[in-house]
């Protein structure tokens, strides 16, 4: 291996500006962090031509494998490949250990919170959380009250979004407890990366993530109703027009389970069946990728044709396990998010390992006034939205947008929260032929069955536009592979 | 297997077979047009369209090149090659978890190929080569299907789609040929007629196989005998019907439900029509009514399969 000289590095970093945001690759003086050294060596050595070739072959591989997501509202070319950056994001073993412990703690507490809320609701009687906040949440499902959930696991599959602040600390921005997606991109990114940089990958000793589907399957199996020895497990998808359809087929195939749509299911005497060529076959576990609202027209939205009538009753009767449970969105409500540290202390008697982002509740008179006065510096979010919609980024907004949000906050304070505009960390990306830093987040995937498992890695999402803080794929975001080192 | 999945696999396969059939007939017809013969370009075109089942939007407009491009590249026409390939791929996309990655890769690549400007340029440069490349893609897909997929019910539904489509399309083709080529007494045959007859065989990739059985002595009656009644040639109707019957039995044996008598009866009748007869008998009764009846029967088989395996009522399944 040839040594990298400082002039090589200077050339490599000529378009790579640093400021107060934490940089994943370089420390404050601009020197390459130790664990990024081998990657920098490779980048210095590889001609731009060769990098471009590898990028093209990776792109082609995504397209022919049909690894695409659906863009809504367009006729032609509705399938796009998920934008993808060629360079891996590295996380040291030590950093990962901390993240893993923090996530296990957090998910355990949130699951306990859901169990409590949908049974005796002690946390409300003890006045740790105002009950008004819970009962006014749109994701609260009264139908779940008193329903006995198998093994008391409400959230079997979770993807939490983490950011890294300029101190280098990882914080949780949001917990996705309903139907988190993106795990197929984590797995396919890895597959492509191993082919693109085999030697580098080998040299780094990256921890494997490929067993995720197997882990998911055993998680689902562990939640099967009592007495069903060889449970029939299915993945319920909204269908081919859903933006995450590729992921649904991918996971079903990797797990070797049936991919069903609502129209494949029928319930009779509180038992769920699927229509097969060999008649009706009983279903025991449903890994649900359809939102609560659309799952059962009898229990939730009556105009939905994506679900299956009678599902909730079969679930209540204990004849089928549905996971994640209904009503878990309560615990990732953005206003309740502010209470997660209290939730952790209440149920586990521990201090949170991973901190929250500071959050202002608009229902609090004083905080609201502070936010309205400083709206140009803050990020305002609608509590029930995701995917980067319904959001105001103060410093990047117009006066008109700010007025609009101020009016909406006054009209419905419960529906909004505000957070400081975070200068979260940046990682090197290949933009054209040049190395440039872009903002990244991290979504690790957590599975909760017999015990809590966090797969070492996750989806690193990238805001590919220069200076942009929005990483969502629906809004110009991309992804990169995440390498957790030994 | 899920009924919906069976439905998608069946139609994926049927659409591919249809695309292949269209490509081959188009290729042969364009070739025949090089030799003037008695038939005008317009007449030949209308025969082709009839043999494809008289789809709308393919009426002769005087410009052969434009017409051929319509048949291959017009996405809006439900009989075009590109439409069939898109439909096949869309069906495959809905059952991505059921087919092998290799199958999906081939089909997806074929789909992207025919959509590309490269395919159009290739067509302008050398139409025959372009048609052949798409047919190759379809053959490759079939081969990969046979070698990478479990030969369970899903694979059998793929075979059902392929062979039912083949029965229907070949019967239609023969019917059109019958209507336009009344048998001529021996000895009066012109070179042009020879070309037409060879063209018919080529539409079914049957020329070389025919020669192996009957030598290069091309006789209309024997062509009909070969394409209708041969047991060993995959594009002969009898072979296709036997394949349908085999797949039917395999599907029935893989499940716990018995096939209904209705289904056994209609597949059995179709098979008997072709097994216990001679070409002499068929011609005495009239080839056209015979072919017409074959088509009717194959549609009936399709309907009964759907009633039993795909669109059955919940109540009947619960009480079964």
Quick synopsis:
The complex is a heterodimer of chains A (486) and B (320). Chain A has 486 residues and is α+β, with helices and mostly antiparallel strands.
What does the model show?
The complex is a heterodimer of chains A (486) and B (320). Chain A has 16 helices and 24 strands. Chain A has helices spanning 6-12, 37-45, 48-64, 93-117, 122-125, 131-135, 183-196, 198-204, 212-222, 245-255, 292-295, 311-316, 334-337, 340-348, 365-373, 399-411; strands spanning 68-70, 79-81, 89-91, 157-164, 170-176, 233-236, 258-260, 265-268, 271-276, 279-282, 285-288, 321-323, 355-356, 360-361, 378-382, 391-393, 416-420, 426-431, 434-439, 445-448, 452-454, 460-463, 477-480, 482-484. In chain A, strands 13-5-4-20-21 form a 5-stranded mixed sheet. In chain A, strands 7-6-11-12 form a 4-stranded parallel sheet, covered by helices on one side. Chain A has a 4-stranded antiparallel sheet with strand order 14-17-15-16, with helices on one face. In chain A, helix 3 crosses helix 7 (183-196) and helix 4 (93-117) crosses helix 14. Chain A is globular, with a radius of gyration of 23 Å. Chain B is mainly α. Chain B has 2 domains: 1-148, no CATH class; 150-320, no CATH class. In chain B, 75% of the residues lie in helices and 0% in strands. Chain B has helices at 3-32, 41-51, 64-73, 81-93, 101-115, 117-125, 127-148, 153-180, 191-203, 207-214, 220-229, 237-254, 261-275, 279-285, 287-310, 314-319. Chain B starts with a helix and ends with a helix. The model of chain B has no long low-confidence stretch (mean pLDDT 90). Chains A and B meet through helix 10, strand 7 and strand 9 of A and helix 1, helix 5 and helix 16 of B.
